Structures are given as structure tokens and as C-alpha cells.
Amino acid sequence: MSNPSTERILNGEHSYLTIDGRIGGVVLDQRKHPLPWYVTFAIGFGLLQVMMLAFTWLLYKGVGIWGINIPVGWGFAIINFVWWIGIGHAGTLISAILLLMRQLWRNSINRFAEAMTLFAVMCAGLFPLLHTGRPWVAYWLFPYPSVLGVWPQFRSPLVWDVFAVSTYMTVSALFWYIGLIPDFATMRDKARNRLAQIVFGILSMGWRGSAGHWFRYETAYLILAGLSTPLVLSVHSIVSFDFAVSIIPGWHTTIFPPYFVAGAIYAGFAMVLILAIPIRAWYGLKDFITMRHLDWMAKFMLGTGLVVFYGYLMEAFYAWYSGNKYEQYMMMNRWVGPYAPLYWALIVCNGITPQFLWSPKVRRNLAMLFTISVVVSIGMWLERFMIVVESLHRDFLPSSWGMYAGTIWDWATFIGTIGFFTFNMFLFIRFVPMINMFEMKDLLHKITGRVPAQAITQRAHEAAELAEERA
Amino acid sequence: MSSKNDTNITQRDVLQRLKDRLAGRKGPEYWRSLEELAGSPEFQRFVEDEFPNRSSLLEAMKMDRRSFLTLMGSSIALAGLAGCRFLPAEKIVPYVQAPEDLIPGVPVYYATAAVILGYGVGILVESHEGRPTKIEGNPGHPASLGSTDALVQATLLDLYDPERSQNVSKKGQAATWDAFFAEARKTLASLPAGGEGLRILTGTVTSPTLAAQISEVLRKYPAARWHQYEPAADHNARAGAVAAFGKPVQAIYHLDKAARVLTLDADFLGQPPSNIRYARDFAERRRVRRGATEMNRLYAVESTPGITGAMADHRWALRPGEIEAIARAIAAGIGVRMGADAHQATYPWVDAVARDLAAHHGASVVIPGAGQPPAVHALAYAMNQALGAVGSTVRFVEPVEATPVDHLASLKELVADMRAHRVRALLILGGNPVYTAPADLEFADALASVPFSVHLGRYDDETAATCLWHLAESHYLEAWSDVRAFDGTASIVQPLIQPLYSSRSAHEVLAGLLGDPIPGLEIVKNHWRAGFAGPDARFEDAWRKWLNDGVIPGTAAKPVTVPDAKVPAPTPVVADGYDVIFRPDPNLVDGTFANNAWLMELPRPLTKLTWDNAALMSPAMAVRLGLATREKAYVANNQVVELSYKGRKLKAPLFILPGHADNCVTLHLGWGRTRGGSVCAGKGVNAYSLQTSDAPDYGSGLQIAPTQDRYELVSTHYHSAIDMEGRHPVLWRTFDEYQRSGYAPVAGDEESTPSESMFRTPPEYANYDGYAWGMSIDLNVCIGCNACVVACQAENNIPVVGKDQVSRGREMYWIRIDRYYQGTTEADLENPVTFFEPVPCMQCELAPCEPVCPVGATTHSHEGLNQMVYNRCVGTRYCSNNCPYKVRRFNFYKFSAGQPNNAPGNYDNPTYKLMANPNVTVRGRGVMEKCTYCVQRINEARIKAKEQNRTIRDGEIQTACQQVCPTKAITFGNIHDAGAEVSRQKQEPAKFVLLGDLNTRPRTTYLAKFRNPNPEIGTEKSLE
Questions:
Q1: Angle, to 10 degrees, between the axis of helix B787-795 and the axis of helix B150-160?
Q2: Which residue of chain A is at minimal alpha-carbon distance from B730?
Q3: B126 within 8 A of B107, measured Cβ to Cβ
Q4: Positions of chain B with pLDDT lower than 70, given as ranges
Q5: Which residues does chain A have within 8 Å of residue B994's beta carbon, measured at their own beta carbons?
Q6: Where in chain B is the domain with CATH 3.40.228.10?
Q7: Which of A58, A74, A153 has the highest number of chain B CBs within 10 A, making it the mutation to test binding with B?
Q8: Which residue from A minimizes the CA distance to B725?
Q9: Domain with CATH 3.30.70.20 in chain B
Q10: So what's the pLDDT on residue B488?
Q11: Is the dihedral of CA B138, B139, B142, B148 positive or negative?
Q12: Which of these, A114, A241, B89, B645, could form a disulfide with A176 (CB 3.0-4.6 Å)?
């Protein structure tokens, strides 16, 4: 394995044609999909059926099939909601903030990360809808013109949530789709198959690549990037308000918005790595998603992980410093209460594990990186478990304390959405160019200038170093 | 309706135009044929157009393509929505001939009496269009004084239990009443002269009519015998009276006159049928208001923790066999002449207790427990005489029972006769002796030898299965009868509804057997007419007055004068291994109420166990036996132990109960049924299977062996210490402290004082015009009896959820009784001070639940109620999460229909539907619910007040929990009315606010608990 510091953001010898061929070929040549695709897709599809079964049973019987109770009124559904929403954040960060910051290295992973965002938000969106007692009237959370004159209650953070998540979903979908238009046009032009030509033709919305098109495209893309950027911060801040607005010890804290946002990006980069590491190997995309990309993402993970860990420390500090007996008990309960093993597992997963990423050797070791990413994902789930369940199960009056455990249907729903996510992700890989082709060509152009792209040599290297400095 | 009218108008217009047209013609030319007329365009349109006014709508809209598409789209969408629901067609049948004085929707109340273990409790029953829906106490009845208890409340569910016996059966095959009477009369006729071999077995009989009927049977069949066996009756009191006075007299206690009370294992606050009255009287001497100089003091010696011990100022947990020695020691201290064996016990507190009792001569009382041997009762009678209590705090009266006998001896005699084949025909009127008879009698086996056995009972239970005939017995709410209260006061039991099934009362069965099958009303009325003192013409008036008042004046038991009580010789103490104690279950009693889902699910006052009984033992004993570790002695460990006693074995789950006497195990009776309904069958373990007739209350020689089995017990409380984690959900002071502080506010504690807020209170929460509803709960008199919980359940159509759901923390009670123990030391664990705290919704003025609801389903009324709008609720449960008191309840399933596992006692069953309170919505799946301060009662009073053009008076509204409360611990009213009782209580220095530092400003506040310990005894709690 080469040293990331000398690694480039575009490897190998590439021309515009080879870029199109390598990336677009995955979609256009449907015959040569690797075996792992079929295996993973089958697993995803199977788990999707589990999710459908779980939701059908849920709608038939009611939320009583889950482990929730009084006092723990929120359980897996809200944990999973926050977890999935968090995962989505890395995609938006990569596509919007890094774009605005002109980080060239984002080009090869943004498409992929945005798709991940989209599917993660889809998974997340299912939970607030279905966790309600009467999901068939959940539309009452939207401010629609009702003849009864009733209106949502805008003081409730759950209504803010509805707006935050639906805005996020809309903007993410638009951003993703607009970024795809030039590539759809390329696919249309390259396709031999009539059906593919028609479908990509429709999807490309008449893109001809004229200067006017490019001008409008760049403008629209920048505007959307500008819109998405605050969303990276606002969506998870608002999700955190669901907790912070309440009076429950462990929820009622001002640290939540930044702590949630950092956690979201942390979890999101972990998920990008979990997906990118195998897929770049299966589809021979190592030239585009290079070790340098992985290295940078690992550094992002380390940075946000440190913020999250700081959050954990501050929660403990505030509990002590507040002098509030409920807060103090909440912290003690996390440390030594019935769920203490989960708390310490969380500290190991999210506080200790990412420290390995200080070492370049670890960041370069794909197996290690993959494992750490999985551990971080588990840790972030545990963090949400800690916040949601451990705060509720012992609040103010000892007489109403209780315990919570997920039932088989909780797990089926959670694992089912992982299946739903995988299913969507692998459909995306197969039918949509998973790396932004025109941006890669643009990158090639920026690196090589007008020199025919037969050899990427010294100048590419320089551009890479330039990009690194900016990063 | 309106659309139909529109159509009619249009049609009439068209017809008018046709008429006009015809009117212009003359003679036979009017019209030649219908065809000609039909030729007119108007008529054609009239005939063809099904909806004549349809086109006008389209024209008026001047519809363009877009509007058309919009309309079409929305129509299709709406059609889809409309197709989503299939509401079943229901027929509503109006009164063709309305009963006089009945206004639909306005309930009518009737006075009657609930029959609990043979004794009466006067009640008023609310009837909606002929359906009894709620039971309230009868303020004029001495056993009720307007209150009831959990049992009386729950008898309503018994009435509607669909699993009740519904007919007559012979050997399990359906039969008819006529067939039964024919066969029974033939059998009676075939008996040898004098009815040799005819036996009647009843429980406690206080009903004058039934007693007269039985006497008549005995007159007609002189050789017949009447046996009585009531498992949960106070047998030892009777035996004690016989031992002390030579005759069975009954002691009635007057706790309203008692400044000092000593109980010797007596649960006078919990044991029916006198518990309601005793609790009220006890509370009268216990209420502490500003300036109070007196408060009663309760000393309790007990084995099994009960609510009486929990109320005590000093409580000692002793093995049941050790209590007699204590009693003797105290008696000696009081001055009872004891003979040779005087002062046996050496406990340091004995002398102090005796001194304190003696110092309150004439105002102190000693109450012996039902589970204590006759000697203790005799001792207690002697002590009361020595204390000058007779005539003031205790009265001796003639027994209320029609024929007081030794029940156990009576049962033994019957069993012996059955075994000897001397019993030809056995008539069991009520009760379930096959189940409740002590195991060594092997009653079922003996019963099998009786050729003609008849069981009259409300359930197809163990006895019904063993008898030849089973007859369905009517519930007291559907049959005429009469009954006497614990003090002898008689009431007519008047039914509120025709029998739901083909059932009869014991009166009707006996009348049928005597060959005079007249209706129950006639039987009861004839009996009372015969005994009526005045002229016959006045009887009808008197009868009506008795029915109206619910009591028959002048029927209280006559006082008797008793000689000095003889103190019997000490009962030898057998301390062999461990003791087993048999106690009636606090909810199911002897098993009578076992098929009542309300009582099954109702958490027991101290264990908070639901749906199960268990082997209760002390933490120390569990640790010694290796069944628990000291650190985890509080935690349910699901172990099953095998109890061996006198050659019988029983496996029972273990429950560690702080405060239980050491070296003994309590088993509650009434569980482990094999028949008698799906609610009770298979729940818990049958303690009768260990009980023997030589020691039905307790006995030594129990052996305990751990097993590998595990069984999950479900208790609604996990943690329970009052001062844990520095929290103080209950504030308390000693009475002495409170007096010496000059009645300083008790709520100096941070939890009860609102902290400074950074935010200004919104004006709509700062000013309330008109009424402002509030509640005050006096923890000092709350005895934790659970009456409010069941009353709330009955009033507000609260479903039962079943054991599995309770174990998941999904019980639905709108008011719960929190139980806290004080202290965490080892001594505390063995004998903790117990606190009860009823927690309904606090109706916070700044309610955390309200702002978090995304759809505004929980709102604040201008009178300060947190209202829950069920049909707006989408079920996010955020309100419950944010409620610091956790008083909100969620319908995780459609609990009201018995989901998920057909939990009983719910409102989708046709019989139970009759029971539902029509003024309270039955909640569906997925919505939150909570205490409303009985808003339906508030609105009822509001309507009445508006009709009379006045404001609602103080005390006019009683919430269900308030009305039922035996000690009147709950007060409700308008806190804007400075003179209202609730406002006065909120001005008390004892007032405190639960979690007051959260600034929720609850409308429900508490009055602190006071304890009145004897300064001579000091603070030591344990015996060491």
C-alpha cells in the first residue's frame, strides 16, 4: 500500500474516455457485475422483506409490539431515527460544504455520499411516522388547510422536526439529482441499449452541454450547496431539540445541538467508509477513490470523534457542576446503573477506538479502517440508546422508574431498515453512475490542463499537493 | 336530512310548474294521456333526472378544465378515504314507553347494600337507563358513611362478568330450574322422617330473611342440619369472646374516640367488612391541621406487613406465635390480673406502650387480629376492660350473624358426616368450600359421597364441578335480599337490573324447595312485613323509606354487658423451623373475588404485586436461606421455593417484602384456582393446599427448599426508598416537631419550593377567571387502600391490560398509589417506615406535557385542567416522556377491546359494554390518556348550576377518587373560592408540592405526613 501523503486524488493513467468507461461502464455494461453485488443485494432485499413484515405487523397490532412503555415512551424507533439522520449528514457535508470550500477531493465521493444521505433520510423518515400510535393521522403534523381550523402546535419540537427532515429530504434529493444531470446526458450518449437511451434521455432533461447549460448548472448547484450548508448544522440541531426542549435529566441540556451535529458527521463518515472501502475494490475504482480520500475521511472521523468525546466529558462535567441532584443521578445511573455496560461500550466505541486514527499506519490499513468505521457506527447507535432510553427510564419519581428492552419486532424494524438502505444503495450502484464523471473529467482537466490526458505526471502531483494544502 | 329536503323542494317546484301548465287548459283537454304530458320538457327532465338540482351546481361554478380536474381528483381521493372505514351498523331503539321520571342521559341513584363476606355495606348505585354503572357509598349507612373500598367498587365488574354461571346444570349438562326443583322436591320427599340427611352449608349469614327461611327449613325438616363456613371471617374473635365471656359477643370499635390504638396483628384498616368505617373513624383522630394539639397514636404488632402496620407510629414485626407473649406483657403493664405467668416478654418498648395506653384511660383501645388465637382476643378484651375502653372506644354487642357458630367445627362436622354417609342431600348456598376448605379435610373427596349435592354459586367453580347440580346465583345488584352491616344495621338489598342470566337468589331457591316459589321481592317484603311493629297500613311507607335511605332504622345490634374477661392460659408456643401464615389476599380475600380482573390487576398495597401471589418473606430470611444477597434483597429475583408443611408441598415464587416478620412466610389465600373463570384459573398458587384445619391461621414446621425453577412476578414498583438519591417525594414530620415549630411550613425543602424562573409566566397561565380546579391530598390520612384506584377505573372506563402488559410497564391506572420505604440500612430493610402517596395527574399550570404535543392534543383549559383530546392525539408519547410525574397512560394496543391477549374486563364485550360510563369516552388504540379530575362530573355540576343560575358550590363536585376515599384524604374544589375546603388545605403549613422545584405549579398538592412516635420509645425501629 502506498503512502497516503504521496498518494494522489486521481491515480493511474486516465483520459476522459477511460473515466467515462470505468465509471459509466458499471451502469452500461450490466453483464459484468461482481458476485459481491448479488450477495449484498440479496441480503439487502431479504432484510427489506423483514422490514415490510415488521411494519405490516406494526400497523395491524399497534406500537405495543415494541418494547416501549411508561416511562420509556420512545425506544428503538427514535434511536434509529436519530442514527439514520446522523448518517445522512456526512453526505451533505461532503457535497455542500466541501464544494463551497473548493475541496477537489470531494469530487470522487460526493455522489456516493449524497445517495447515502438520501437513503439514510428515507430510512430515518419512516420512524417518526410509524412510531406514532395512530400513523394514519400522522399527517396532522403538517400545517395543511383543514376545514376544522386545527393547526399543528408550533411550540413542539416534533413539528420543527417535520419541517427540518422534509426540507432536508427535498434539498438532498434536488442536489443529488441536479448533480446527476450532466452524467445522465453522458450515459444517454454512451448507451447502446434503446431502453437505457430513453430512460437516461428523460432523466437528463435535454442536457446538451452547451455553455448556457453549464452556466445555469453551476449557478443552481452553488445555490443548492448554499442551501444545504446550513442544513448540515440545522437538521441535527433541530433533532436534538426533540430532547433538549424537554425537562428530562439527560435531555434538558444546551450542549445537544453541536454535540449532535458532530456526532452526525462522525457517524456519516463512518458509513461512507463502510460503503466505499468494499465498493471501490469490487468495481475497480481505486483510481478515483484513492488512499488519500480514505485518509482524509479518517481524519474527519477522528476530528468529529474528538468533539463527540468532548461532549461526553462535558455532560459529566455539567451534571456535577449543575449541583442538580437529578442530573447527577442521571450521570451516576449511566456509569453504574443497569445500563452501565452499554455506556462503557459507548465510551470504548466512540471515545477510545477513534484514537487509533492518529496513526497514519492505521488510516492506511483498510481492514483496520473498515473495522473502526463499523465500531463507530455501533457506538453512535449506543449513544442514541443512552440518550433516549437511559434518560427516560429513571427520571424524577423513583416510583415510576422502569426498564426498557427492544423486542424482536424492534430489532426486525432496525435490521429491516438496514436492508432497505442496502437495497437502495446497491440499486443506485448498479443503475446510476456512482462517481461524478464530469467532475472527474473536470478534475483531470484541472490537473492536466490542455495536455492530452495520456500521462498524468508531475502536474497532477502538484495539484494534489495544492488540494491537500487547502484541505 | 337537509339534502333530502332540498330535493323535495325542487321536485315540488317542478310539480308546481306542471300544475301551472295544466291549469291553463280547460275541460277534457287538460291532457289526453300521460304520454302527452310526458312530451313536455319539464316532465321529461323531472322523470329522468334523479337529482333535479344537480345541474345548478355545475352552472354556478362555471367550471373550466382545471376546476373539473381538481374536483375529480379530490372526489376520487375522498372516495378512497371514505372507503377506508367500515363502521358496523348499530340499531338504536328508543323507549316506546318511557319509564316515568327517566330522562335519558341523566343517571338515577338507588340505595342498596353490597354484600361482602356476608355483611352489608350501604351503597348508592348510579344507573344509566337501567344499567348500573358505578357504585358509591351511602352517607347514611354506618358501614360506609359515603365511602366504599376497592372490593365494593369492583363488585360492579362481577355483575357484568360474562364468565358467570348463566344457567342450571346437572353434572355439567344444561338443565332447567323446573327440572331442578322437581328433582329436589322428590329427593327431599324421599328422605327419612324429619329430613334426616339434609344438610345446608352457607357462609356467614346475616340476612334476616335468609336466616328465617333456613329456620323454616329446619322446622319442616327437624333432623336437617345447617352448617356454616366462611373462610375469611373473624373466627378467633368469636372464640375469644366465648373464652373470655362464655358467650359469643361481638366487639365494635370506635376509633374516633381513641387517642391510642394498639393492634395485635389486626388489619382493621384493610379487613372487610368493617374496614371502611374504621378507617374513617381512625382518620378523624389523625388529621392534623394548623393549631392541632392532638393526634392519635397507633402501635402495631404484626407479622405480615399490611396497611394498618404501614400507618403505625410504631410497628414491630414478630412471628405470629410471639404476639401472645407481647400481649400478655402489655396486659400485665396495663394492670390486667394475669395470674402466675405475668411479664414474659422483655422487649424494652412493652412498658412504654402499656404506660401510654394506660395514661389514656377510656381513650385507648387494643384490637386483636383475626389471625391471632382466641387467647389473644380474650386478652385484648381484658385489656380494653382494664383501660376503661368498654363503652367508649369499644362496645360489645350481640353477634350480627344470625346463628354464630364455630365455622371450622361446623365444617368438620359436616365432613365427618359426609364420610360416614349420613348426608343424603347437601345444599351449598354460595361459597366454594371445595376450594376453601383446609386441605386436610379433603372436602371434595367427602362431598363425592353425597348422593344429592347442590351448589348455588355465581361461578362454575371447583365446588360446582364436584356437585351434582349447579345453580346460577344472582348478583346482589340483580336480586332482592337483605343484609346486616358489621354493627348490625340492616339494609334491604334492592336490585337495579333484571338478572342478566337465568339465575336466582338463595331466597328464591329456598322458597322453591319449600314449595312456595314466590319472587325474591315478595320473600323479603313478607319477612319484614311480618316483623313490622307498626300498623300494616304504615308498612308500605316504611318499606319505601328503607329503600330510599338504604338503612332500616333501629336494627343496629343491641349492646350487651359482659362480665370481666377471663384470661386464658397461655397458648404453648411451638417454634419449630419456620412459620407459615395464611392470610386472605388484600384484593381477592378468600378467592371470592378471584375472577374479578380489576382486583386481579390492582397492585397489592405493599407488595404492589399484580396477577400473582407469592411466598412473602423478610429480606434477612431470604439472605439466610441463600435465596438473595444482601445487596439485592430489594430486587425481585424470580426464584421459586418449595414449601413443605405437614407433609404437603407447594411450590411458590419468592417475594422479598421489607417489614415482614423474620422466620415466617406469608401465603395469601384466594389464588391458584383451577376453575371459576379464565381470569382466576391458573393464576398464583393455592395456599389452601397447605392449610390445615387444626391451625388455619398460621402454623410452625414449615420447611423451605430452593428450586431451580424461575417464575416472573410482576410488581408495579421496582424501587421504593423514600430518601433515595436525595429525593423527597413525601415530606413528613413528627407531630411533636410540628407543634414545637409553631406549625412552620414543612415545605422548606427545595423540592417543594419553586425555583426562580428566567421567563415571565404567560398571562393566560397567570390569571384564571372563574373556577380554578384544584386538589389536595392529605398523606397523613391516606392509608394506601387502593379504593381510589378502582373507583377511578370504574368511573373512567379504564381497561385491564393483563399480566404481560403490566410487566412491560403498561398498566393504565390514572391514579396510582406510590409506596415508599424510609431508610436503606439493614434495620430499615427489616422494618421500614412506609409511606403511601396517591399520584393522579397534577394538572400543572405550567404543564411540561402541553408544549411538546405536536398536534395540540393536550391543551390547557381556562379552569386550569390539562385536557386530553383523544381524537386529536396521534400518539407520539412525547407528553408522557416529558411528564415528570409519569401519570400519563398510553394505549399501546387497543386495550379497551382486550388486546393483545383478550385481557378481561374490557369494553368490547357486549356484557361489559353495559357497564361503561356513558359520559367518558372509551379510548382506542394509539392515544394517550390521563386523569381529567373527572371532568364529566365537573360539567354535570356546571350544567346543574347554570340551570339554577348560580355558581357551583364547594363540595358539589366530588371526583371519583375523592368520593370513594374511606378516610377522605382527597379534597377537590375551586381554589379561587377562599372558603372552599381545598383552598383552606392549600393554606395549611403542611402543604407541599410534588417536585415543586420544577416550576410546574401543580394544581394537585399534598399535605405532609405526620408521625406521632412515643418519645419514650425513641427512634429505634428494630427489636434489637
A1: 40
A2: A397
A3: yes
A4: 1-63, 76-90, 339-345, 575, 631-636, 718-725, 748-757, 762-766, 824, 902, 904-905, 1018-1024
A5: 397
A6: 250-397
A7: A153
A8: A329
A9: 774-1011
A10: 93
A11: positive
A12: A114
**Residue A449 banded pLDDT, cuts 50, 70, 90:** low
**Single-letter amino acid, residue B288:** V
Q: Assign a CATH topology to domain B168-232+403-476+498-538.
A: Rossmann fold (3.40.50)
Of the CA atoms within 13 Å of residue A222, those in its CB half-sphere come to: 9
For residue A337, the chain B residues in CB contact (below 8 A) are: none
CA-to-CA dists, residue B119 to B400, B483, B784, B940, angstroms: 9, 6, 23, 33
Amino acid identity for residue B451 in this structure:
P
How confident is the prediction for chain A on average, in pLDDT?
87
User: pLDDT-based confidence at A469, cuts 50/70/90?
Assistant: low
Residues in chain B within 8 Å Cβ distance of A138: 874
**Closest CB to A74 among B855, B877, B925:** B877
Of the candidates A131, A156, A401, which has its C-beta nearest B718's C-beta?
A401
Beta strands B452-457; B469-472: pairing state: parallel
CATH fold for domain B774-1011 = Alpha-Beta Plaits (3.30.70)
Q: Is residue A11 part of a domain?
A: no
Q: Which one, of B777, B696, B668, lies nearest residue B1004 by Cα?
A: B777
Q: Which of A132, A392, A402 sits opposite B876 (nearest CB)?
A: A132
| Cβ-contact B481, B505 below 8 angstroms | yes
Q: How high is the ipTM of this complex?
A: 0.90
Q: Which residue has the cell 369492583?
A: B154
Mutate to test the interface with A, among B881, B998, B1001 (most CBs of A within 10 A): B881
Give the CATH number, domain containing residue A368: 1.20.1630.10
Retrieve residue A422's grid coordinates: 442496502
Give A-chain residues touching B727 at CB under 8 angstroms: 325, 396-398
Q: What is the pLDDT of residues A210-221, one digit of tens each?
A: 899 999 998 998
What is the enclosing helix (H) or strand (E) of B122?
A: strand B119-128
Of A62, A150, A246, the CB nearest to B893: A62
Please spell the DSSP secondary structure of A53-106, one letter per residue.
HHHHHHHHH-GGGSS--SS----HHHHHHHHHHHHHHHHHIIIIIHHHTT-GGG
Name chain A contacts of B1004, Cβ cutoff 8 Å. none
B636 CA: distance to closest CA in chain A (Å): 13
Check if A179 contacts B (Cβ < 8 Å): no
Number of domain units in chain A = 1
Is 3.40.50.300 the CATH number for B581-715? no
pLDDT, tens digit, for every residue of B963-999? 999 999 999 999 999 999 999 999 999 999 998 888 8
Over 60: is that where the pLDDT of A278 sits? yes
- List the grid coordinates of A453: 490526458
Q: Which amino acid is residue B654, in one-letter code?
A: L
C-alpha cell at B879: 407528553
φ and ψ at residue B653, rounded to 5 degrees: -70, 150
Edge-to-edge strands, sheet with B314-317: B314-317, B297-302, B260-264, B364-368
**Superfamily the domain B250-397 falls into:** Dimethylsulfoxide Reductase, domain 2 (3.40.228.10)
CB atoms B881 and A152 under 8 Å = no
Over range A39-61, report the average pLDDT.
94
A304 found inside a domain = yes
- Using CA atoms, how far apart are residues B500 and B497, in angstroms rounded to an integer? 8
Tell me which residue in A134, A138, A157 faces B927 most closely, judged by beta carbons: A134
Q: Which domain holds residue A232?
A: 16-470
Q: Tell me the C-alpha distance between B302 and A262, whole Å.
A: 60
Q: Where do you find CATH 3.40.50.740 in chain B?
A: 168-232+403-476+498-538
In this structure, chain B runs to a length of 1024
Per-window interface: A 273-292 vs B, CB < 8 A = none
Quick one: DSSP state of residue B568? P
